Amino acid sequence: GAVVSQHPSRVICKSGTSVKIECRSLDFQATTMFWYRQFPKKSLMLMATSNEGSKATYEQGVEKDKFLINHASLTLSTLTVTSAHPEDSSFYICSARPWSGQETQYFGPGTRLLVL
Amino acid sequence: DAKTTQPPSMDCAEGRAANLPCNHSTISGNEYVYWYRQIHSQGPQYIIHGLKNNETNEMASLIITEDRKSSTLILPHATLRDTAVYYCIGYYNQGGKLIFGQGTELSVKP
After folding, report:
1. Shortest Cα–Cα distance, B46 to chain A (Å)
2. Interatomic CA distance for residues B70 and B22, integer angstroms
3. A69-108 pLDDT, tens digit each
4. Do A46 and B97 lie within an 8 Å CB cutoff?
5. Whole-angstrom Cα distance, residue A38 to residue A46?
6. Which of A35, A71, A100, A105 suits a disulfide with A50, CB 3.0-4.6 Å?
7. What is the mean pLDDT of chain A?
8. What are the pLDDT digits (tens) for B7-50?
9. Do B41 and A93 touch (CB under 8 A)?
10. Do residues B31 and B2 lie in contact, with contact meaning Cβ atoms separated by under 8 Å?
11. Measuring CA to CA, which residue among A7, A39, A33 is closest to residue A21?
């Protein structure tokens, strides 16, 4: 149990375009999902906390207009990288926390974004 | 969230126990100690967590000192597939956030 999926697994796009990444909890409902980014040989950096039915909470230094987060249901959160630039190229990872009261977070497999 | 300190890297021989230390001297009484690992180019995988008692599951054992200032993750019989970066994180389980440090890069060698 506790499986989280992400789609796509990797994406290449041109500079200036927008890219949407989906995060789904497959076998549980998650009121809270989290988005991280990771640069090569670096640790994960928390970008934002996504709560179902409300606005996301962004970490300091993360542009909310650049990284749009929507958590429309208890099993789906999306991250849209708007007007992507090469410096947005990174590994994006989501996690989901079950609403059953069990606080362990489970992570998706990640999405590798390359902006040309 | 509690700040944790881990050695940047460790080696372990295949089949031997891997003991990964973590210092979390500023952890508060209601913060759990969580361990995750990340195999190259994958999302982090949950391993185990504990509050103050030692814990064991099918993957590992977690030994937390009585003063809760440090802990050790034990992989009893390391295999090559256990090569990964291991993260120790202090986590407040009521609405907390997982904040990752640098972790320990464990290399299991034949």
Report:
1. 7
2. 6
3. 998 899 999 999 999 999 999 999 999 988 765 678 999 9
4. yes
5. 9
6. A71
7. 93
8. 999 999 999 999 999 999 988 888 899 999 999 989 999 999 99
9. no
10. yes
11. A7
Among candidates A2, A103, A107 on the partner chain, residue whose Cβ is nearest the Cβ of B43: A107
| pLDDT at site A39 | 95
- Burial letters for A46-65: b for 16+ Cβ neighbours within 10 Å, e otherwise? bbbbbebeeebebeeebeee
A contacts of B86 (beta carbons < 8 Å): none
Of B41, B98, B102, the CB nearest to A105: B98
Best interface-test mutation with B: which of A24, A45, A105 has the largest number of B CBs within 10 A?
A105
Which of these, A77, A51, A47, A50, lies nearest to A62 by C-alpha position? A47
CA–CA dist A82, B35 (Å, integer): 33
